[in-house]
Prior knowledge:
By secondary structure, the chain is α+β, with helices and mostly antiparallel strands. It has helices at 15-20, 40-49, 69-76, 129-139, 164-169, 216-227, 237-246, 282-294; strands spanning 10-11, 24-28, 31-36, 52-55, 60-66, 89-95, 101-114, 117-124, 146-149, 155-160, 184-189, 192-197, 206-211, 233-234, 299-305, 316-319, 322-333, 338-345, 357-361, 364-371. The protein has a 6-stranded mixed β-sheet. The protein has a 6-stranded antiparallel barrel with strand order 15-18-17-16-19-20. A hairpin with an 8-residue loop joins strand 12 (192-197) and strand 13. The chain is globular.
Amino acid sequence: MSSTATPEKRRTALDALHRSLGATMTDFAGWDMPLRYGSERDEHLAVRTKAGLFDLSHMGEITVTGPQAAQLLNHALVGNIASVGLGRARYTMICRADGGILDDLIVYRLADTEAASSKYMVVANASNAQVVLDALTERSDGFDAVVRDDRDAYALLAVQGPESPGILKSLTDADLDGLKYYAGLPGTVAGVPALIARTGYTGEDGFELFVSPADAEKLWLALTEAGARVGLIPCGLSCRDTLRLEAGMPLYGHELSTSLTPFDAGLGRVVKFEKDGDFVGRGALEAAAERAASQPPRVLVGLVAEGRRVPRAGYPVVADGQVIGEVTSGAPSPTLGKPIAMAYVDAAHAAPGTAGVGVDIRGSHEPYEVVALPFYKREK
C-alpha cells in the first residue's frame, strides 16, 4: 500500500504565542494561521474604533535588485514601477499574456543599494507567492536584475485602527507624521529593526512592520503592551476578511482571478499603457480596455441585505427571474449591522439603487440593495 504524505503546514515565528493566547487556528494557503482569538465581531470593532494587531507572516516577500530592477518590474507587471519614488509603495498586478490576473501586489521601492542599483520588495498573496516568484524569475531573462525569494527572511506584523499611530509613536523615533499612506521607511520599533510601511487591508489607518522572524515575538509583545491602554487586541484572519469586505477591497480567488482582467474587475486604473517599453499582457489588456469602454462586462458592486440571511461566494444574483451575476464575497457586516456582499452583476443592474435585485440563497430569493463600493470609508 502506498500513501501520499500530506504536506506539513508552515508556521509563523509567532505560532506558539498565538496558541498561548487561545487562538483558533486554520489552514490558509498552506500556513497554520490564527482565525480568531475570541469574538470575531469584537476584533473587527476594535480595528474600526481602537486598534488591532495581526500576524501576516504568510504573505510572500520577493526582493528584486539590480541596475535594471525597475525595467524588469515594468516589463513583468502592469503598473509603472519605474515612477515609484524612493520610500514609496504602489498597488499593482501581475497578469498573464492573455490579460488574466495572476495576483495583485504591493511593490515597495527600498533604499537604493548603490548608485546604479535599485532595490524593490514585491509582496504577493500567500496563495500566489510561488506563482509570482516563478513568473518574475522567468520574466527576468535578459534583464540585469536578480529576483530573490525572501519569504523566510521576514515576519510581518500589522497594527491597524485609529489608535495605531499613537501606539507606534510610543515605540519608535521614526517620523511617522511624515510617513504618507503607501510609503515605507526603515526604522527601529521597540529596539527591533523594521521596514515601517503605512499600508493595510482594513480600510483604517495603520502600519505593516516587516521584521526578522527572530524579532517577531519581541515586537508583538511590545506592541501589545503599548496598545493595552487604548484597547488594542490581537486579531485573526476572520475579522481581516470582514474589514476588507466593508472597505470594498478585492481578495484574490474571490474578486480577482486568472479568468478576469483588471478591467473586468473595475481596476483598469492600475494598468499603465503610457509607460516605456512593452509589458506582459499589453495587447490583451488594450483589447480588454476597449471592450470595457464600449460594452462593459459585469460590474463589481456592493449588495446590502434587507433581511438577515448571509450571502456566500458563488451564490447567484437574480432579477426578474434571471441570473444576472454572482456573489464573490459575503459576510455579516459588524459596522453596518447587516449582511453585505460584493458581486459581479450585469451592467444593466449595476447602478446604485437598482430595484428588484436579490440573491438566491438555497432556492430563496432574498432582496438586496445595490450600493456603490466601498460600504465603509473612514473619516480622515
